[in-house]
Amino acid sequence: MTQHVPTTGAEKDTASKEFTRLSVNINDDTAEALKRLKREKGISITEAVRRAVALYDLVDRETGDSGKLQIVGDDASVREILLLG
């Protein structure tokens, strides 16, 4: 179901868009991570979820079938992450 949901604050620039309201079950670790992001970044949990999905979508599209992601640290160290299927 898609519906218009009025927003305020950091989300006001998207107020004219339609939204899908979701109800999801998450484990305690995920809930704590979302709360930490909310607190440390000063964003809503909804915005944290939006950013997480956008990042996952980017990674999924960019890695294609290889399922490999490399993270380069400030010290030029490289970590490779293999994404499962």
- The low-confidence runs, each spanning 5 or more residues with pLDDT under 50, are 1-8
For the termini, the CA-CA separation is: 28 Å
Topology order in helix (H) and strand (E) letters: EEHHEE
User: How is the biggest beta sheet arranged?
Assistant: 2 strands, antiparallel
Provide the structure class: alpha+beta
Describe the protein.
With 85 residues, this protein is an alpha+beta fold. It has helices at residues 28-41, 45-63; strands at residues 2-3, 19-20, 68-72, 78-82. The chain has a two-stranded antiparallel ribbon with strand order 1-2. Helix 1 crosses helix 2 (45-63).
Gist?
By secondary structure, the protein is an alpha+beta fold. It is 39% helix and 16% strand. α1 packs across α2 (45-63).
Name its key features:
two-stranded antiparallel sheet; alpha+beta; 39% helix; 85 residues; disordered N terminus; 2 helices
Give the secondary structure arrangement, pairings included.
Blueprint: E1 2-3, E2 19-20, H1 28-41, H2 45-63, E3 68-72, E4 78-82
Antiparallel strand pairs: 1-2, 3-4
Helix pairs in contact: 1-2
